[in-house]
Every structure is written in structure tokens, then in C-alpha cells.
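Dear colleague,

Thank you for sharing your sequence with our group. We've completed the structure prediction you requested, and as agreed, I am returning the results in plain text so they can be pasted directly into your records. Please verify that the sequence below matches your submission; if there's any discrepancy, let me know and we will rerun it promptly.
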Amino acid sequence: MKNAAVVGLGNMGMGMAKNLLAARFDVRGYDLRPERGDMLAKLGGRPVDSLADLAGSDVVFVMVMSGAQVMDVVAGEGGLMTALQPGATIIVSATIQPAEMRAVGTAIAGTRLNLIDSPVSGGQYGAEAGTLTMMVAAEAAVFEANQDALNAVGDQIFHVGEEIGMGQTVKAALQAYIGVSFAGIFESLALGAAAGVKGETLYEVFSSTHVGNTPFFKNCAELIMARKFEDSGSHIGTMVKDLGISMAMARETGMPLFATSSAYELFQAGISLYPEGDNWTIVKFLEQFSGAEVQW
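Please find the predicted C-alpha cells below.
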């Protein structure tokens, strides 16, 4: 049985651990919150008290929030660089800045550890269902050697290049598309409601079109119509962070992002008003201008 580990047992990391267990990996997990370790134990995994306790792992997924946290997990005192044996693979599945990912690659160089840069898309549902899209940057041999672990948590796996940081680069571009798409959905539904159109009518018409007849639109609209603005697995803070990465990459490349910058500001307004909400809370902000709610 191959030994796997997950660092960061939030909604995403826990879903990935569950699917690794289902694929018959021996799974250990580390999180600063003891209750998350208890949740892993109930699934059949083994919570540990420190990164040093992950020694012997063949592959470790790092699913934390920021680039600084990734660097600390990998190269900090007592981190994976000292805990893991030569030949082990670290898979950074967190979404961080490409430059931060390249810095992790520099730090690990010469350690005889393998590194995979693989941010994911699909949210909590994709993590739990094992249907994540994975944007993998790694040496071809490392990519091939870790197919079992990648396939345990992902459904669509793309080898986007061998250069560390390229996975994060692709994710930053994708996140711009997702953020703008969300903004369009929110504004169009709020506009229809403001003009007196029933939510059910908006949903039926939009979802009959080639742009609306998608799981992306339907899931988003259904949550809005049901007024499910918290605990749906898509926290607004993550979107603000991810769009910030897209905007930072735009500055680095000199690329003007007109729609993405507007979406970023919209999400900034949303998180200021509803810091505990999910992405859909943007609709509540827009509803303030008309007083009309988007609902069934």
C-alpha cells in the first residue's frame, strides 16, 4: 500500500484525503485544528501532530491557503524538506502566485525530493467527488510516476509543462475567466429581478441557452435562488485571493484586464459586506440597489 499524506485538512484537503483512502492509499493528515484531524480519523485516515510525523510518505499533497504557508510547510523549520525521504513527491495543490511556486522549486532544488506544481479547480464538490481538474507542471518522469495519486483526487489531469510555476500560471488565467463569469451571472440575475422577472423564469430561460445550460450556471443560480449564501463550499475569501493572483500576474505581464479588474472590485465589495459569506453573497450586495431579491 502506498503512503500518502495531506497537509491542510480544510474542505478541499479533506475531500482529497477521502478519495485517496478510497483508492487504497494509507493516508496521514496534518492540520493546525485538532477537530479536522478527528474528522480524518473517522474517515479511516491517521492524523499526525507534526510535519515530522509524515516521514515515510511517498507523496504529500499541500492544500493550504497562501504561498507563505506553502513555503513554511515545505522549507520551514521541521518542514517536509527535512521530514521526507529522498524520492518522495510533494504536490502543491494550493493556489498561490507563480513566483511563489517558483521560489518553492528553488528551495527544494538539490534535496532529491520531487516537486509537482498542480493547483486544482472544481471546488469542494470536486474535491469530495474526486473530479477535480488538475493543472500539473512537473518533469515528465515525475508526472508519470505519480499518476495513481493524481488520478485518485482528479478527473481531468493536464500536464501543462515541465517548468515549476506553469501550473499556477494556467490557474491564474483560468481564475480570471471564472471570476468574470460569476460576475456576469450575478449581475444578469439581479437585473432581471430588479425589472420584476420571477427567478424561476430567469432560471428556465438562461439554462435553455448554450451559455446557461451548464453545471456552472445551474449550480450557481440554484444556490442563489435558494438563498444559500454560506457554507456551500465556495467561500468568497478564496475567490478574492485567487483573483488577486490573476491581477498580480496581469501587472507582471503588462496585460490589461478590464473585466477581471471589475470582477475583482465586485468581490472586494462583497467580502467587505459579507466576510463569512460564499461567492453568491455578491447578489445580496447587488440587490441593495433595487430592493428586489433573486429567488424562486
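Summary note from our side: DSSP finds 14 helices and nine strands in the chain.

Kind regards,
the structure core
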